[in-house]
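Before relying on records like the one below, remember that each one covers exactly one chain. Contacts with other chains, cofactors or solvent are not represented anywhere in the record.
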Amino acid sequence: MRGQRSALSRREALILQCLINHPWLLHEHLEEVAALELAHPEAHKLRAGIIAAFANDHHQVSEATEPAGKMRADLEASGFSPILQRLDRAITTGAVWGARSGAAREDVLSTWRQLVALHRQWHSLLRELKDAGVRRAIHRSQSCVVAGREGQDGGSRWHGSPDRRFWRALGPVPAERLSKK
């Protein structure tokens, strides 16, 4: 694996840690948790394990005092110990104390809302960047076609035009695409 999927992101780790340490969050946010876009495959597996453990044992209690240790013990009994260890290593800061066990309900809810909002914004920006990359690739392909046509009539209009400066700012056009007729 490479890129953003090679390691569990700190933000995803904090979201999962919140759910493990505060299973009562699932009473109000189960659909939201299920709909989160997670980049790392282990985050998907752990989220499924958290939801399964919640469905099996944790649906009776909706108190903030519900023991976080029970959720962790259920996950470890289900074979998630290696993923939980990697999750703990992914969280390199102790500054997000709302994700820790023992945090006050209001602090946990505030931290949860911030983490989920940032996570959604991140994925929205990633989608926009991918869309912009696709648009740029289309523009570069169109510039290759235009450059091929301009090359047939000497290119007198092409070299000094504002369009040429715009396309040059987008990056170089591959030579093999310019030479095709």
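The CA atoms of residues 102 and 162 lie 62 Å apart.
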